[in-house]
């Protein structure tokens, strides 16, 4: 009988060493998964933080209409335009309503952009998941997410309030579910993918171009019945959910924005690398379906007057994945030229991107001019309809103005443009090149108040009125003012005397003051300015008056007894005297017959 000798290698006969090795392998794989998930979550958080820093950056062309749509869903429980990507604004407005974004943020654009930050973070996570479904490495997916997170072009596109940003996660989710190496699998993922793609297209019709990628993935599986069924479901779903009219309206709105060349100038390295990677990916079986979709979006973005910004929003995340994927494919096995090229691109991009991110995240709109203009409107034109851009429309409604007392450019006809007061803001100035009627009205109107300087300047324009030229009006005010200043029955300090002689006094005030001086001696203590009106070279329409040996009520009664255009807006008795205030907007030709 052979005796058994135990040794350190004896447990191998029972598989203990194999089980231990397998357990260690699983632990290492779990550690790697945890590390990867943490890294991707960190990159998604970085993308969100950078976009939060850009919430109050200047508005982009076409963004005002979208901000107004989100606010209307949030605060007014209505859709301003039911054909203008309603599903996008229901999603964004639902988020802002649930989170009280318009209450928490000091600016309307910051509140409306907050949902875009969330969609950007979701897009980053889905981009990494798609990379894994494509068979790319963890590092490649992380690089793609990092590129989208820190690229100034991607940041600028993703922070804008646009339906394409809301549609991007839906489109990526649908493509991710369709991307499978197996020809036969359960039907549920394909049905969910079809539903997500239908939602993406209804949310932003431009997402229809990414259906090229989805169709390629289905065709590559070679299952004709499945392809026909999913295609029928997609067409039926989009037809019921959107319709031809809404699709055309969505495409029209998608064309509002900066041309592709503007965004390309902001990040030329990303554009060059993306175009090159897309072209090279057409020769890769693994990357070709995604490259076809990016190529379709790029071609549409280059159409003059087309949806440049909209197409680029949908093209940038997949393009970043193609850049990272092309580098991986070119570097397997390790090839010195491809590796050197990747390192050179990274070295050139990092300093440029750091500078671009610093500019985007530190630039912001000064809210004070708009706040001052809103206060002026509330005090002087509380119910008078004014025309302004969508973002300012939201700000005015937020501060208590009735929605019917403010009109957005899209709701303003040619007659409205020539007969309405205009609040010319940075956002409205972006729209004027596309609205000749508003541009002409702004050029011919009278500027009655100005707030702020430079880019943040806000102007309030009164509709053009028939009457004498400005030079004659000013000369008439100077003549009447000098007569009042020389009158022995009118006393005034030096500052008031200079304002009277320089023609900087409202003609209604000059007319009534001249009549008052005929009946009694009067002292003009001050001509208080109205905020914003001196900057617009408007005459002073307020006066503080006193009369020797006569109660203030007598002066107040004289002014309140005036009728028509000469009746003041308010007459207030104070300890210093009687404060007279006339409505905004100097009447034309009042002094010309008496000059």
From TrEMBL:
Domain of life from the UniProt record: Bacteria
Membrane-crossing segments per the record: 34-54, 112-130, 142-161, 191-219, 226-251, 263-283, 290-316
Keyword Ribosomal protein in annotation: no
Alphabetical keyword list: Membrane, Transmembrane, Transmembrane helix
Protein name: Glycosyltransferase RgtA/B/C/D-like domain-containing protein
């Amino acid at each position: 009988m052979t005796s058994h000798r135990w040794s350190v290698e004896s447990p191998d006969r029972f598989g203990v060493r194999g089980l231990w090795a397998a357990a260690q392998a699983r632990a290492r794989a779990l550690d790697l998964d945890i590390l990867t998930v943490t890294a991707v979550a960190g990159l998604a958080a970085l993308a969100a933080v950078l976009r939060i820093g850009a919430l109050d950056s200047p508005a982009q062309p076409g963004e005002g209409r979208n901000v107004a749509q989100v606010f209307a869903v949030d605060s007014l429980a209505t859709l301003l335009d039911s054909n203008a990507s309603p599903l996008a604004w229901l999603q964004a407005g639902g988020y802002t309503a649930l989170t009280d974004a318009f209450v928490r943020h000091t600016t309307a654009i910051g509140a409306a952009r907050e949902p875009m930050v969330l969609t950007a973070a979701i897009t980053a996570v889905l981009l990494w998941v798609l990379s894994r479904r494509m068979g790319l490495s963890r590092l490649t997916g992380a690089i793609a997410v990092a590129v989208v997170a820190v690229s100034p072009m991607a940041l600028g596109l993703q922070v804008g309030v646009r339906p394409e940003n809301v549609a991007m996660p839906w489109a990526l989710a649908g493509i991710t579910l369709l991307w499978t190496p197996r020809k036969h699998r359960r039907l549920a993922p394909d049905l969910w993918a079809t539903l997500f793609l239908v939602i993406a297209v209804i949310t932003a019709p431009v997402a229809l171009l990414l259906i090229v990628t989805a169709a390629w993935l289905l065709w590559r599986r070679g299952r004709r019945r499945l392809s026909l069924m999913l295609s029928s479901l997609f067409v039926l779903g989009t037809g019921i959910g959107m319709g031809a009219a809404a699709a055309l309206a969505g495409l029209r709105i998608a064309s509002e924005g900066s041309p592709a060349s503007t965004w390309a100038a902001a990040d030329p390295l990303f554009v060059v690398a993306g175009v090159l990677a897309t072209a090279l990916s057409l020769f890769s079986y693994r990357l070709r379906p995604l490259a076809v979709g990016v190529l379709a979006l790029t071609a549409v973005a280059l159409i003059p007057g087309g949806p440049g910004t909209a197409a680029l929003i949908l093209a940038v995340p997949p393009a970043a994945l193609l850049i990272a994927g092309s580098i991986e494919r070119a570097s397997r096995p390790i090839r010195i030229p491809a590796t050197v090229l990747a390192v050179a691109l990274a070295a050139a991009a990092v300093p440029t991107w750091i500078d671009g991110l610093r500019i985007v995240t530190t630039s912001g709109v000064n809210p004070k001019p708009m706040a001052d203009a809103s206060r002026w409107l509330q005090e002087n034109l509380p119910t008078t309809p004014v025309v302004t851009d969508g973002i300012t429309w939201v700000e005015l409604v937020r501060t208590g103005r009735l929605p019917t007392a403010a009109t957005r450019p899209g709701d303003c006809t040619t007659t409205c443009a020539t007969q309405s007061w205009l609040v010319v803001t940075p956002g409205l100035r972006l729209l004027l090149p596309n609205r000749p009627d508003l541009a002409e009205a702004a050029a011919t109107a009278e500027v009655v108040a100005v707030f702020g300087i430079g880019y943040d300047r806000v102007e309030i324009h009164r509709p053009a009125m028939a009457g004498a030229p400005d030079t004659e009006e000013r000369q008439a005010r100077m003549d009447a003012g000098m007569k009042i200043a020389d009158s022995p029955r009118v006393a005034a300090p030096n500052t008031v005397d200079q304002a009277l002689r320089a023609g900087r006094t409202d003609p209604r005030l000059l007319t009534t003051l001249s009549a008052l001086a005929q009946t009694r001696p009067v002292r003009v203590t001050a001509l208080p300015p109205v905020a914003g009106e001196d900057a617009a070279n408007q005459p002073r329409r307020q006066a503080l008056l006193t009369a020797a040996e006569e109660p203030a009520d007598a002066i107040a009664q004289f002014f309140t007894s005036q009728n028509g255009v000469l009746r003041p807006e308010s007459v207030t008795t104070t300890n210093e005297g009687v404060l007279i205030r006339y409505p905004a907007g100097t009447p034309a030709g009042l002094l010309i017959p008496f000059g």
